[in-house]
Specification:
Blueprint: H1 3-10, H2 14-22, E1 29-30, E2 36-37, H3 41-54, H4 59-71, H5 76-115, H6 118-121
Antiparallel strand pairs: 1-2
Helix pairs in contact: 1-3, 3-4
């Protein structure tokens, strides 16, 4: 399959496919004219890559995890790695919630100041 065919079938851009290849997430061969050629199973692999990216995994983690997708078996190390990724996301979500709470405080103060009469806002 040519790059445009894979991109269309998988719902990604050709640029994404070139990036995935650069990150060693997919592989291609070359035609005599130098065009990238992919096997039909690349479409499903790209769909998995998209799912794993959407789950917050880095390309490095995805490279390590993709063999588990194909075998259906994740060893203890990979399960531990996925749990660590989930914990990292939990930490990030807590940080974002705290940041949002601070923004809510700033917004409340701004709204309170905007609702006061002009002289009162200036401390007059």
């Amino acid at each position: 399959m040519r790059i445009g065919e894979v991109a269309s079938a998988a719902g990604v851009s050709t640029r994404a496919l070139r990036y995935y290849e650069q990150q060693q997430l997919i592989a291609s061969s070359r035609s005599t004219g130098g065009q990238r050629l992919y096997t039909p199973d690349t479409v499903e692999r790209v769909r998995w890559i998209q799912l794993l990216y959407a789950a917050g995994l880095s390309s490095r983690t995805i490279v390590e995890f993709l063999p588990c997708v194909h075998t259906g078996i994740a060893g203890p190390e990979m399960i531990a790695r996925l749990r660590a990724e989930r914990d990292r996301l939990d930490d990030h979500m807590r940080d974002l919630a705290a940041t949002r709470a601070r923004l809510d405080s700033v917004l409340a103060a701004a709204e309170f100041g905007a609702s006061r009469p002009a002289g009162e806002a200036a401390g007059v």
